[in-house]
Amino acid sequence: MKDLWNWFIGSLCTSWFLWIMIIVNGLGSIYGFYWYKEQLGSTEPAFLRIFVPDSPTASTLFTFVLIAFLVGRSIPSLEAFAAVTNFKYGVWAVSVILAGAAVGDQLYWQHYMLMFSHGGMAVESLLYARFYTIKLRHIMYVAVWTLGNDLLDYTLDIHPWLADKLEPFHNTVGWATVLLSLFSLWIIYHLTKLHKKKER
Asked: For 91-106, what is the HEC assignment?
């Protein structure tokens, strides 16, 4: 089992594996923007729409990170934005779907598909932490964006639509999202530092 794990970790930045990840993330991002089409169309004023499709924006940024790795480049600011948001919204989506089910929302096959795909987003952000070149200042840039995005999402009500049965808990979801943002910033920075120490 250890040999299999070592082979898997060693494959993460090989060209064939990166191409698979780029294709999967790229197609998932396209589908994600399509998923948000109704909410994007109903969001006014139009400039707020950039804050609406959180998950596909995160997976698109992560696709760019993978492309950079493929050509032998490291872009720490991009890595920070992609890793933090990809992890955050991966965990957020899974948690919100399960929370909705806990208060009586009925789950369909789309919910399970979303949990699988978003769970994958969170996992890949952690797996690739060993390759990030992120420093504290990059995390601070992302903190401004993510916490600002949370503020807009839950004060202007432009967050991803919640299940009807979860809507009464709107404020609780908002505060939980802020805590998740802080945790996401911490875990990505912590893992990056941890892997860098192991390389010394």
From this structure: HHHHHHHHHHHHCCCC
Torsion 135-83-93-190 (CA) sign: negative
How open is the CA angle 15-16-21, to the nearest 5 degrees?
95
Number of domains in the chain: 1
- For residue 61, the enclosing domain spans 2-199
Rounded to whole angstroms, the Cα distance separating 114 from 176 reads 20
Q: Are 156 and 98 in contact (CB under 8 A)?
A: no
Q: What is the mean pLDDT of residues 16-37?
A: 95
- Kindly report the pTM of this predicted structure: 0.94
DSSP 192: H
* Mean pLDDT calculated for residue range 162-180: 91
Tens-place pLDDT, residues 62-91 = 999 999 999 999 999 999 999 999 999 999
- Of residues 50, 122, 115, the one with CA closest to residue 86: 122
